[in-house]
């Protein structure tokens, strides 16, 4: 920059956009770095988690609800911290930890392998945007809370109880499995004009030398009702 040049004025970032950037950046760093939801062990064989059902084509990103949508969407709810997750189809019933940013602004994984966690820098389940819940798939040679996550199917029910005493009920819209090295962060975490939910864990082949799985499983869901 020369002495005659003037720096461009700094533009204030929209708060919603800032939150989305934090969400995508923190989770992407964790996924790529291999720190999220990997099976902790010393190279021992881990149980093989189910794979997401294969698709004949790459699914398009979730789109806003329309009059012809087969998955109805309920009106978004006020913000409230999630406290419990229930997924009847795969036998999940767990309280929720609060996941924060750790060193390097990377999202911390759940401390308890039998519990899922909510990323508190993102939306709360039931509010507009992609709320994120994460959980381990295996832990020290045993199955963890999200071991069967890839078996979920479109149309199945996910229930999130909240601190305000209300329950947000979501319907699964699709399940996808992505190689970690090509994880589509924009597709997964892009802004939504409805209340969405993302459940994330590991999948694919386990590498004993790297103590990590090759893939990530992502369940996409949208708010169907509230009580």
What are the key terms here?
single chain, 227 residues, mainly beta, Sortase, Chain: A, eight-stranded mixed beta barrel, two-stranded antiparallel sheet, 2 helices, Sortase_dom-sf, membrane
Question: Care to give the gist of this entry?
Answer:
Residues 42-79, 105-125 are annotated as: Disordered. The protein is 11% helix and 33% strand.
Task: Describe what this molecule looks like in 3D.
- With 227 residues, the protein is mainly beta.
- It has one domain: Sortase, Chain: A, CATH 2.40.260.10.
- Helices cover 11% and strands 33% of the residues.
- Strand 9 (195-207) and strand 10 form a beta hairpin.
- Residues 1-16, 28-45 and 55-69 have low confidence and may be disordered.
- This is Class F sortase.
Task: Outline the fold blueprint.
Layout (H helix, E strand, L loop, with lengths): L14 H19 L48 E6 L4 E8 L16 E4 L9 E6 L3 E2 L2 E2 L13 E6 L4 E13 L5 H5 L5 E13 L4 E15 L1
Parallel strand pairs: 2-3, 4-9
Antiparallel strand pairs: 1-2, 1-7, 3-4, 5-6, 7-8, 8-10, 9-10
């Amino acid at each position: 920059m020369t002495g005659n040049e003037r720096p461009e004025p700094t533009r204030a970032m929209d708060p919603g956009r800032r939150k989305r950037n934090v969400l995508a950046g923190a989770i992407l760093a964790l996924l790529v770095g291999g720190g999220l939801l990997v099976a902790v062990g010393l190279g021992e064989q881990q149980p093989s988690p189910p794979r997401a059902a294969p698709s004949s084509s790459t699914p398009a990103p979730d789109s806003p609800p329309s009059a012809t949508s087969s998955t109805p969407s309920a009106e978004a709810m006020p913000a409230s911290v999630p406290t419990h997750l229930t997924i009847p189809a795969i036998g999940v019933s767990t309280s929720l930890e609060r996941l924060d940013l750790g060193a390097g602004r990377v999202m911390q994984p759940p401390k308890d392998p039998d519990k899922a966690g909510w990323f508190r820098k993102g939306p709360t389940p039931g509010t507009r945007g992609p709320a994120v819940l994460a959980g381990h798939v295996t832990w020290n040679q045993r199955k963890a809370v999200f071991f069967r996550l890839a078996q979920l199917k479109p149309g199945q029910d996910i229930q999130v109880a909240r601190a305000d005493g209300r329950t947000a009920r979501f319907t699964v819209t699709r399940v996808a499995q992505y190689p970690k090295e090509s994880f589509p962060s924009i597709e997964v975490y892009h802004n939504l004009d409805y209340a969405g939910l993302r459940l994330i864990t590991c999948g694919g082949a386990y590498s004993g030398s790297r103590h990590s799985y090759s893939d990530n499983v992502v369940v996409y869901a949208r708010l169907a009702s509230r009580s």
